[in-house]
Hints:
The structure holds two protein chains of two kinds. Chain A is an alpha/beta fold. Chain A has helices spanning 44-51, 74-84, 100-111, 115-128, 144-157, 174-189, 201-204, 227-231; strands at residues 2-12, 17-28, 33-37, 59-64, 67-68, 85-88, 162-166, 193-197, 209-214, 217-218, 224-225. Chain A has one domain: Rossmann fold (3-Layer(aba) Sandwich). Chain A contains eight helices and eleven strands. In chain A, strands 3, 6, 7, 8, 9, 10 and 11 form a seven-stranded mixed β-sheet that branches. Chain A has a four-stranded antiparallel β-sheet with strand order 2-1-4-5, covered by helices on one side. In chain A, helix 3 (100-111) crosses helix 4 and helix 3 (100-111) packs parallel to helix 5 (144-157). Chain A starts with a strand and ends with a helix. Chain B is of the alpha+beta class. Chain B has eleven helices and twelve strands. Chain B is elongated. Chains A and B meet through helix 1, helix 2 and helix 3 of A and helix 1, helix 9 and helix 10 of B.
Amino acid sequence: MLVMKNINKIFQTADIQTHALRDFCLQVNEGDFVSVTGPSGSGKTTFLNIAGLLETYSNGEFLLDGEDVGTLNDNGRSRMRNEKIGFIFQGFNLIPDLNLYDNVDVPLRYRGFNSAERKRRIEENLERVGLASRMKHLPSQLSGGQQQRVAIARALATSPRFLLADEPTGNLDSEMAKGVLTLLEEINQQGTTIIMVTHDAELALRAKRTIQVKDGRVSELDVVANIHQASA
Amino acid sequence: MLETGLILRALARNKIGALLIALQIALTMAIMVNAIFMIQDRQQQMQRESGIDEANTFYLTNTIFGQNYNIQAHLQTDLHMIRNTPGVIDAVQINAVPLSSSGWSMALQHESGEDKDAVGSAIYMVDDHGINALGLTLIAGNNFKQGDVEIRKDGQSTWPAKTIITQAFAENLYPDNWQSAIGKTVYISQTQPMQIIGIVKTLQAPWNGWDGVERSMLVPFQRESKGSYYFIRTEAGRRDELMPIIEKALAQSDKERIIRRVTTTEDTRNRSYQQHNATNKILTTVVVTLTLITGFGIVGLAIFSINRRTKQIGTRRALGATKGQIMRYFMMENFIISTFGNIIGCIGAIGLNMWLVNTFNLSPIGIELIAFGVIALFIVGQIAVLYPARKAALIAPATATRTI
Lengths: 232, 404
């Protein structure tokens, strides 16, 4: 479970203070698929960065699986990211010099798995996204949709509790986007909690819940339990 | 967990930059090791003992211009006066000064005859005060007696019947047992017999670059010549005080000659090795400069590589890499490049050394110097990459989600 209570994030430069998040409150339960929408500059990415422990917050309370994130040092946050969180980025963020196998291997090495365990997880997850036959290919040899699938395999390889997706279909055409979204839905159905930031209203509606962020706050009125998902 | 395999595969796909740095390390290694070897070789040459009491000796030239000048009478007067000057231990007339770059040489052979093998040697003409005045150590046999000393006129081709040689010369003449040289007869000027009556520990020739610099001989001659050196040894610490006193006394005692070039043997040694010192300074500058250039090259490549991979580093952090793991990644990457460079560098260093050995007759390079070069360049590499690696480790994980 992810719980944020009155989270504030203030970016401070020499003479400007920017409140990216103001008293941001949110609870994401186990197995949720939450889409986060909002206009540019509303604080979506800041929320995602804080939720993914990529950034610290100025004040408030943030519990991830019951652990107070505010008490963790940098190494602790790195460990928690590696163990509990998987990331999917808009630009895929694959390492161009490494083939698919090695790309999926990266977080597993940080986790300290032995080579046999790493091999099993890499093959299993590349199989899961339908790219097992191309594990020796470089990212540049794949389409955008396939690259995002590799990124999903990499995110899933460490068996995270949470999958955070930042505009996961932003760089894909509609066909590829559909394929990636279907994959995310499958992953969610298998028990992984997903939080997805998106601009795309149609895409957002495919999540179980949609959260609207405005001026760094969650607008309670905009928290919608998506009917079609609930009835599905 | 170390990412050696991943780094190797990533480097294999981005060869050029890494290859250039590896080659720079290799070149630095090859040049550095050989330059240090040459510096050491010169240092060893400069540290060799000349055999004389350098700290307490000086010499001067005595040039006679007077007509009908009684050289012998004046020589004896001069030497008597110098030897009796308070603070002087001894003095001698000599034909050449060790390490002065100017001297005489002859050859000795075991058998008389024109076509017999002979061994070259520097030759110093001294009287029975020679060993004491120079501060030599007699390690076998005896010194010359006063009666052994002969007067030598300019152009004379005959030699005295006795000689004292250095241990190195004795070892060359009698490799099985150098001490057996005492009492042996050798031949100078191919046919003139000469008995070895003594052996001194060390007395270097005037030419420091000569491969027979340790081979010298003393012959009991006093030269009846218009130009000669007086070599003077003083009590410890009194050399500088006595130099002007003796110069003045000699100059005032006789107006038909010029006393000049009053020089300490320490100055002579310094002048003798001036070129060695200059070469060593140049080589040291080359080594330091090359090492710095290589260090800066590593810094430059690492910073370029980090700037190019900022998002990638952010992604690694997002995937769970700690700051320490990011630092280790770049340090390991540098270690791999350095290893490759050092392997090529070792081959290059040995190849260059073989060429130097063949061309300049140097001795082969020692494995310990190559090991030193390898370790030094690994350390330089790791220090050079420390700042860029630290910079990489400070890249925020949130960089991964930035689109620009």
